[in-house]
Amino acid sequence: MTSLPVANEPPPRVGALLDHLSRRMRLRAEAVLAPLGLRPRHLVALTVLRDGGGSSQQALAKTLEMDGTNVVGLLNDLEAEGLVERRRSPQDRRKHIVELTSAGAERLAKAECALASVEDDVLAELDGPQRQALYTLLRQATRDCAENPCTERGSC
Predict the structure, then answer these.
(1) How far apart are CA 72 and CA 62, in angstroms?
(2) Residues whose CB is less than 8 angstroms from the CB of residue 103 and which lie 6 or more positions away in sequence, other chains included
């Protein structure tokens, strides 16, 4: 016997599923980063520094969308571990240039391997093409937010 459609059933929404998946990913990621002495915000800063070949403190704060004071604390953590190095800019002695150290690059590589394992675990039900499709759709869905943050659009 076929079932009848439910009247006034709301259309499927992905928000709760994305939130649940994100929470699972975040909790597992934090668990594998902790033994490496890293938190997610450390990982993001190290990745930005690696991909950009270094940065001024001010530019890093803007990229991370963090207050300058908070970036100083973040960099203090990373510098204490020998993962980044701050030095005065030769062009403008008032500015600090932040660069990833070889120890920072090594720790970042270990973290990325650990996170790949987390992603494999959390997304185990998806095969390769499905993961690629999910990635493509998520990139498409976030493209407008990356280019025009909600605070600027006023539509969120």
Answers:
(1) 13
(2) 81, 82, 83
Specify the residue for token string 């934090």: 30
| pTM to 2 decimal places | 0.76
Count CB-CB contacts under 10 A for residue 4. Answer: 6
Q: Which of 72, 140, 142, 84 has its CA nearest to residue 108?
A: 84
- Taking alpha carbons only, the member of 84, 92, 95 closest to residue 58 is 95
The single-letter code of the amino acid at 34 is: A
The Cα 69–Cα 133 span in angstroms is 39
Across all residues in the chain, what is the average pLDDT? 88
What is the distance between the alpha carbons of residues 47 and 112, in angstroms, rounded to a whole number? 10
Burial class (CB in 10 A: 0-12, 13-18, 19+), 138: exposed
Q: What is the DSSP letter of 93?
A: T
Tokens 């938190």 locate to 39
In this predicted structure, what is the pLDDT of residue 149? 53
φ, ψ of residue 96 to 5 degrees: the values are -105, 135
